Structure formats: structure tokens, C-alpha cells
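Could you help me review a protein record that somebody else here produced? Do not assume that whoever made the record got everything right. The record follows directly below this note.
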Amino acid sequence: MKKKKTEDQAKPDCLFCEIAAHRVAAKIIFEDEISVAFLDHRPLFPGHVLLIPKEHYRTLTDLPAELVGPFFLNAQHLTGAVASAMRAEGSFVAMNNVVSQSVPHLHVHIVPRTKGDGLRGFFWPRMKPGEDELVAVHESLARRSKR
């Protein structure tokens, strides 16, 4: 497990680093050695929570392997806590990497959901690729995803 974050490990111009260091106020609902969770200041619905690592990592691919499991166990725990506290029927758990990432610090959105809440699956139009495109995409992803 990583040691607790110190002042010099924060990125000084990062809002989420400032929240993690308790230098900027936030409605914190959970905190442990590696992460902190707080209410989103512009929620999709009441109870919309952001979970961040305390250390500055821009995207999921930057998160060290030894933190992936503990970080996502916290996401799993918070997903249940948010659903229970908000009496939600389900949840939406999401993460942007670079594109649409309003703060360039890894964060997971945990949003309580109820049927008929107006949120429609993914927020963008879907496409219907042709078979040739599917084959090309499949081959490219399969090649690059091997360890």
C-alpha cells in the first residue's frame, strides 16, 4: 500500500488535490488512506458522489497497479452506500479519461438512479457499424489488449 500523501505529492493547481489535502472545502462523505469521496458540486441527482485518489493521477491508466484494487473496492463500497442512503433503485458509475474530464485528476462518478429519472443510458447517440468495421476494430483491440 502507498504511504499517506504528503504536501509535496499534490499538484498545486489541481482542485481535487486541494480537496484531498483539505485546503479547499468539500462535502466529504468518505476518506481513507488512499482516497476521498465528496458530493459533486453540480450533481446529476442528489447524492452524486466523486471518488478520487488522494495522490494526483490524471487518468485510470496512470493509477499504479497496487492501487487499482483498493481504489475500486472503495468505489464498490460507496456505490452501495449511495444507493442505500438515497433509496435508489440502482446507480450509474462512470469515469472519463481526458475527453470530458472537467478536472484532470482521476475521479469516479457514483450517481444514484431510479427508473424514470430522465437519465438516458449513455448520453450520446449510438452508431451501427458495418461488419467490416467490426472485424477491423475487433482485430485492433485484440492485438493491443494482450499483456
Notes: Strands lie at 28-31, 35-39, 49-53, 90-94, 108-113. The domain at 7-144 is CATH 3.30.428.10 (HIT family, subunit A). Helices lie at 15-20, 65-85, 131-144.
